[in-house]
Amino acid sequence: MALSLLSSHAIVQHGSVWTAWIHCAVHLPTFRDEYAQFCERTGGYDLAEENPSWLSIYFAFIAISLMYMKRDEVAAAGLETDEVPRLIRNWYDASIFFFHKAEFLRRHDMRSIQAIAILLGLMKNMGDFDLQSSLLAVGIGIAQCLGMDKEPPTVSENHIQQELSRRVWWTLVICDWLQRPVRAACIQEAGFQVNLPRLVTDDEMSAWNLTAVDDAYPRPIQYHIAMIRLAQEYHRFRHKLPTTADTAAKLESFVLEADESLARIIDELPPHLTMSGQIGDDIPWAHSQRKNLAVALLFYRLNINRVLQHQWLDCDVAFRRARAICLSSAKAIISLVDGDSDSLVLYRSWATTSHMFSAAITLAIEVQHGDDDQAARHGADIDKCLAFFDSVQEQNMLARQAATVLEEVMLDQTETHN
């Protein structure tokens, strides 16, 4: 667990730019100040007297940062590439250890919720599938006890802490409403009232001079807001689906309406989050944000339209539109990820693995019910998914499972056709 200050500084700096906007769990100026004081006190080694809640945040922060570092960034941080999986596992385990040492169930603290918000992005990569769903539910309950589900949040009277609380609460909402496999949500839309995060950077949040804010300038928080809108639309879709599935025509209309809601999200994205938008050198993180968002939006378009898959497999031509959207979304997901091999590090997350697996299974079902021509057209894309799983599985336990299941599906289909 020992880490030189040179390496620690590099990883914290990387996380401030490239991963902090994924979880939105820390106010960066505050976290950097706390980190500097930590280094001054301990040199990064003597942890015995440190606050375990903060240490849980710190180790989770550097673990997820390292997971997204490229080879040259790892080398610049003074680390060996071969050591990366072990270090991520070590720091992830350290975060969990200090999380429990802080007695998070007995002593409710917003820092525990911040740690959970980061750990949720790591747990499925580490293979802790059951712990991920359990800790999400516990985190939501503690957040509610702290008043993070209220407006203004009653967890603190400090305006920075209140705005951070909003961001972290919405991270929990996103994880709850977009969790996979789909489960009953712990959070109900009518059960809380929390404003969307303000359109400010962390530095602007510190100054709190909102009259001077330029709304047109890109900010990392806009990705978070887009994911919130996606979560809201998908949650509403899942909530209403059981009551609209009594007839095929009614279901088709409902799917079309939900698909159009996602299209509106795409239409209303700020330019830097669209695939055609220009990105300046001063916002390098925007490249990662828009690629991740594009894959996520394609996945949920696929997921919504796939509700009609049973109908179109029965050869009902009335559902050709949904089938076309579903298949084109699946192929677009695979194309985006496979065609961006230079930035493969961006796709190490379990979420991308889930998107790719869903795309592959969608195509595999088409192959199963189609002819040899369909098998040839979709087989190459399925092979790309298997190659992707192989490339990330060293740091992604979900990818190992996805590859095993997909290979079994394809083997069964081969034996059936033979």
From TrEMBL:
* Compartment annotation: Nucleus
What's a GO biological-process term for it? DNA-templated transcription
Report whether ATP-binding shows up as a keyword of the record: no
Top-level taxon: Eukaryota
For this record, an example GO cellular component is: nucleus
| Keyword flag Oxidoreductase | no
Q: Which GO terms describe its molecular function?
A: DNA binding; zinc ion binding
> Per UniProt, which keywords does this protein have?
Nucleus
Q: Where is the Xylanolytic transcriptional activator regulatory domain?
A: 26-176
Give the protein name, as stated in the record: Xylanolytic transcriptional activator regulatory domain-containing protein
